[in-house]
Specification:
The longest helix has 22 residues, at 46-67. Residues 1-9 have low confidence and may be disordered. A hairpin with a 2-residue loop joins strand 4 (88-96) and strand 5. The chain has helices at 3-7, 17-22, 46-67, 111-129; strands spanning 26-33, 38-42, 81-85, 88-96, 99-106. It is an alpha+beta fold. It has a single domain (3-129), classed as Dynein light chain 2a, cytoplasmic (Beta-Lactamase, 2-Layer Sandwich). The protein has a five-stranded antiparallel sheet. It contains four helices and five strands; from the N terminus they run H-H-E-E-H-E-E-E-H. Residues 13-105 form the Roadblock/LAMTOR2 domain. InterPro entries: Mycobact_SerProt_Inhib_Rv3364c, Roadblock/LAMTOR2_dom.
């Protein structure tokens, strides 16, 4: 059983297809748990999705740590982190309690459109993307 299959009695992968199909140059769409596991994926194999999940969890943690250097604010959730590389972009957004949405794109993507589609998905599916924290090494 893959990590994605262990999270829910139904497969959430199909929920992510709207981003991948509606925004040209989208490569990978992954829902990541707060501790770096792949909860759902679209347009990628399991091994790649798990690498993306681990990396994006690190990005999320780094953003949270750096947010402490900003003026105090009660809401420290990650709205969006965008990393631009020569080959493309990495976007990470808090999706719901314990989950993040990660999207990797090619260089020429419409960054505004991808950000809008990510936000729309999070608003529409927030409850379905929620992940409980693990206890005693058990998956949620």
């Amino acid at each position: 059983m893959t990590t994605t299959e262990q999270f829910a009695p139904w497969n959430l992968d199909w929920l992510l297809q709207d981003i991948a199909k509606s925004v040209p140059q989208t490569r990978h769409v992954v829902v990541v748990t707060a501790d770096g596991l792949c909860k759902a994926k679209w347009n990628t194999d399991q091994e790649t999705a798990e690498r993306i999940a681990a990396g994006c969890s690190g990005v999320r943690s780094l953003a949270a740590a750096l947010s402490e250097e900003l003026p105090p604010h009660e809401d420290r959730r990650l709205r969006m982190a965008a990393i631009e590389l020569p080959a493309g972009f990495i976007f990470v957004m808090d999706a719901s309690e314990g989950s993040h949405l990660a999207v990797l794109t090619d260089r020429g993507v419409d960054t505004g459109l991808i950000a809008q589609r990510m936000r729309d998905l999070v608003v529409r599916l927030g409850e379905h993307l929620k992940s409980r924290p693990r206890s005693d090494g058990q998956l949620p």
